[in-house]
Design a protein that fits this description.
CATH topology of the largest domain: TIM Barrel
Strand content: 15-25%
CATH superfamily of the largest domain: Alanine racemase
CATH architecture of the largest domain: Alpha-Beta Barrel
Number of helices: 10
Distance between the termini: 44 Å
Radius of gyration: 22 Å
Order of helices and strands: EHHEHEHEHEHEHEHEHEEEEEEHEE
Helix content: 25-40%
Number of strands: 16
CATH class of the largest domain: Alpha Beta
Number of domains: 2
């Protein structure tokens, strides 16, 4: 791979810090995702990584029709981009219940569904429906212990409640295994099998009871190849479309490439071996410890200070870089990094050609 792939011919025109999206790399990542899934039919990619309507449309162009999202704004952006089927994978509470109803009325050509894991949410969803039955999937806790109900009697009872609630229709099961991040693919596969044994047993039980269980929406990016082995599961990866060094370093078995890079500039040289970049934690996700980015020109530089607008790095090569020089950095975690930017610069054939607003970083678009 050409070590200079991340340079942009007209980067002098780009104010920093900026998030660059490399279109050709995105396209290759979409094709790799499709190859692992065996085609578009079972894919339900998560849009929370990129929050970009044009990237939804890029996936639709490859035949993908179903998407997953985490917010009402993401759902609206995805429907506006032309998605046929949108799953809100976040139990609606409070005003979100009525906002989901408003979405269904605004976009009658899009099939919306959501998840629930409690009596309160099921009742609220049923009472609010005025646009025909809403498909609801039971959110099942397969080991992450963040949301969902453990597979068993209580899960079966709640599923029966969905089936018996006027205004609702059983959509199946949703189970996210974000706690599985073992680097070794064989061990990750074993953990995935263990985590989903209860989910599969629950589905079989519900089917024996005569209940419709149309879907099992399973996993994220790290377990995409594991769930892809099962023809009866929908797959919902997200990070793989843009990728980052957190996943790239850990999951060497996955064939994706970095498609999003932060453009920064040297704004100060405060010491003999120090450089200060305009890449503060208002421009890159800061929930992880340092290093939060990997500077591609100096990948071994030590990151010693990070504040709102500044990143200070140490390297014996500091003298090679001048004030105002552009440097390029890959974030450890791309998803919350995207949400910090109002727009992205789209790079094609080595040149920044477009700017796309990050529409769904907003909590509200129109609804």
């Amino acid at each position: 791979m050409n070590a200079e792939w991340f340079h942009v011919a007209n980067e002098r025109e780009i104010a920093s810090p900026a998030l660059l999206i490399f279109r050709e790399r995105v396209e290759r990542n979409i094709r790799r995702m499709l190859q692992i899934a065996g085609g578009p039919g079972r894919l339900r990619p998560h849009v929370k990584t990129h929050k970009l309507g044009p990237l939804v449309r890029a996936q639709i162009a490859h035949g993908i029709t179903k998407f997953k999202c985490a917010t009402i704004a993401e759902a609206e952006m995805t429907a506006e981009a032309g998605a046929a089927d949108v799953l809100l994978a976040f139990q609606p509470v409070g005003p979100a219940v009525d906002r989901l109803g408003s979405l269904r009325r605004k976009f009658p050509g899009t099939a919306f569904s959501t998840i629930a894991d409690s009596e309160e949410a099921i009742r609220a969803l049923g009472a609010a429906q005025s646009a025909g039955p809403l498909e609801v999937l039971l959110d099942v806790d397969c080991g992450m212990h963040r949301t969902g109900v453990a597979p068993g009697e209580e899960a079966a009872r709640l599923y029966r409640m969905i089936a018996g609630t006027p205004g609702l229709r059983t959509g199946g099961l949703h189970a996210y295994d974000g706690h599985i991040h073992e680097a070794d693919a064989a061990e990750r596969s074993r953990q995935c099998e263990d985590a989903f044994a209860g989910v599969v047993a629950l589905r079989e039980r519900l089917t024996r009871e005569g209940l419709a269980v149309p879907l099992l929406v399973a996993g994220g990016t790290p377990t995409l190849p594991m769930h892809a082995r099962y023809a009866d599961r929908e797959l919902s990866p997200g990070t793989c479309v843009l990728w980052d060094f957190g996943y790239g370093d850990k999951f060497g078995d996955m064939p994706f490439e970095i498609a999003a890079v932060l453009l920064a500039r040297v704004v100060s040289r405060p010491g003999g071996n120090r450089l200060c970049l305009d890449l503060g934690y208002k421009a890159v996700a800061s929930e992880n410890p340092l290093p939060r980015v990997r500077v591609l020109e100096i990948p071994d530089a030590a990151q010693v200070m990070h504040s709102e607008e500044h990143l200070v790095i140490e390297t014996p090569r500091a003298g090679e870089f001048h004030i105002g020089q552009c440097l390029h950095a890959v974030p450890r975690h791309i998803c919350p990094t995207v949400a910090l930017h109002g727009e992205v610069c789209v790079v094609e054939a080595g040149e920044a050609r477009e700017r796309w607003p990050v529409t769904a970083r907003a909590r509200r678009i129109s609804i």
